[in-house]
Structure formats: C-alpha cells, structure tokens
Amino acid sequence: MKIVEAHLVQLAAVIETGGVTEAAAMLGMTQSAVSRTLSVLESRIGEPLFVSGRRPMQPTPLGEQLGLQGKSILASSRKAMEIIRSFKSGSSGRVRIGGVPFFMDAAVSQMIASFQRSEPGIMVHQSYGNYPDLVAELDSGQIDLAVTPTGAVDLRADLHFEPILPARNILACSAGHPLLRKRNIATGDLLSYPWVTPLPGSPLVLDLNNILLTLGLEEVSLRYAGGSLLSVVNYLAGTDALAILPHSVAYAFRGENKISVIPLDIPQPERVLGIMTRKKPYSNPAGRKFLGHLRREFSELRRAVEKHETTINWLPGPFMGDRKTAAEGSS
C-alpha cells in the first residue's frame, strides 16, 4: 500500500486547523478536494482517521500518528520555500572567495566581517592563493571570486577582471627604526639592515628584485622568510629588518604602533589589484550582494590610503625616476 505524501500533508492541515474548510484555505485548495483526499486516504487504509461527529475535528489515534508525519512533511515544505525565498533575495547562501594571503588577512577579512554584520545568514569561506592558483580554482568551481593582483596579461575570454585598487608599495620597518630619523637615505643605508623575503609566488618577490636592479645590487641580506602577515609584522616590530609591503596592507596596522613606512620613493609595480570572476557564473544572489559590498569597501579603502599617502613626507632617496602610477602590490 502506497501513501501519497500530499495526502498526509492535507491530513495534517485538517488536524491543525480543526476543519476541512479551514485546512483548504490554509493550503490554497478547495474544500471538496481536501474532503476527497480524506475519503481516499481512509478507504486505502481501511481505518477511520477522525472521530465521527466531533467539532472541531478530532483525529483517531491512527489519524493523529499519520498527521504527525504529514506535519513533518508540511514543515519541511515550508522550510524549503523559505530557503528558496531567502536564497533568491541574497539573504542566505554561501560565498567562496580566494585571494593573495597578505591582502586577504589585512583587508578582506575585515570586509567579510562588516558584510556579515548586516547579512548574518550568508556563509563566507575564505582561502588563499596566488594568481595561477586562483585561476585554477575559478575553473574548477572551488571559489566564486578571487581578489588578486595582475599586470599586463590577457585574461581568458571566460574570465572577468575588475580593477579595485590602484597601486602603491612601500618599505616597511619597525615603528622605532633608525632610518625613520634620517633626512636622507642612501643605498648603503638599505644594505645595513636585514630584509624579509616575500612569500614564494608572491608578486612582491619581483618587486624586491626590481629594487635590487634599480640600485645595481645583486642581493641584500635576507634573514626571514615564509611568515604569515601577522608573523611578518611581529618580526618587523621586534627587529631592524626591512620589508616590501603594499601600502594598503601597512595602512591596516597604522593604529597598533608596530610598523611604520619608510618615506622613500621606490620603484612601483606595473599591476593592479582587482576582483576576478567567471563571466558566466552559476546563479548566486548572495555572491552578487557580497561583490557589491566589496566594491564599496574597496572604494573607501582607496580614499583612505590615498589620503594617508599625502601625509607622508616622501624622501627622494637612491632610486631614479618618478613614482609610477601602477597597481596595488600584493602578496
């Protein structure tokens, strides 16, 4: 004997409302349709489902047990409809974002937090990677969007890249570093201190090599490598080491009195930080809402970093040429 689930739902509605008319109204059905369902169900089971002559309608012990099953189905159906409505409105769901490590930790994680204060129903999963890794993860559907720097490269036709932050790299050091007290900085000054090696695969590796080429040097003293952003900041704060960081990353630590910016013009990279997505992603209203939030947050960050840059008295130093307007160096 097969019981139709919809029949159990109608049975539960009658028990819940106490009458066929009321149940029909709740379910958006006609009274006659619900009455037929009860008759069919009783005939198929061979047992009465309601006590005869009781108003409001009172289920028999069997009717009550079957009604509980129908109530469970009805609750699941309502929950499913709520999930659909919430998903379509972008109020629930999941967003998977990947990005370059230092920038994700310094800026994007805070943007995720501010997003979820207004959208607590959306789960955000954050992962790390450099440009080639992020392209592969977009291809395989492991992430929905990526925050990554790129230069003059041709994106594939199925990928979209939206620039979000103009560039500026800086030399970072401890808040009490001796170079901060110098009015002029020469090449020898930069060689007098150890340096932090950027993470493998990071664009900052190329930036460090560019600085060495500009100075005509083969190498500097590299003393620390492989650390996370917090590890690098803590290492800088406890030593006289130097490191290349995106200005926006250093800006994120401005209130902690751990690191500072050496006000020295350095060669800037020819790349830009942006958001990369597939041009034809699957439907994800929560992802679209999160993308809009990132755009607004990056716009505010851009203005704040540019304002901070104007407060620094930049020294000419040993580097030749003017500062380039380029993209955000990121790690």
Automatic annotation (TrEMBL):
<dbReference type="InterPro" id="IPR036390">
    <property type="entry name" value="WH_DNA-bd_sf"/>
</dbReference>
<dbReference type="GO" id="GO:0003677">
    <property type="term" value="F:DNA binding"/>
</dbReference>
<keyword id="KW-0805">Transcription regulation</keyword>
<feature type="domain" description="HTH lysR-type">
    <location>
        <begin position="1"/>
        <end position="60"/>
    </location>
</feature>
<comment type="similarity">
    <text>Belongs to the LysR transcriptional regulatory family.</text>
</comment>
<dbReference type="Pfam" id="PF00126">
    <property type="entry name" value="HTH_1"/>
</dbReference>
<dbReference type="InterPro" id="IPR050950">
    <property type="entry name" value="HTH-type_LysR_regulators"/>
</dbReference>
<dbReference type="InterPro" id="IPR000847">
    <property type="entry name" value="LysR_HTH_N"/>
</dbReference>
<dbReference type="InterPro" id="IPR005119">
    <property type="entry name" value="LysR_subst-bd"/>
</dbReference>
<dbReference type="Pfam" id="PF03466">
    <property type="entry name" value="LysR_substrate"/>
</dbReference>
<dbReference type="InterPro" id="IPR036388">
    <property type="entry name" value="WH-like_DNA-bd_sf"/>
</dbReference>
<protein>
    <submittedName>
        <fullName>DNA-binding transcriptional LysR family regulator</fullName>
    </submittedName>
</protein>
<keyword id="KW-0238">DNA-binding</keyword>
<keyword id="KW-0804">Transcription</keyword>
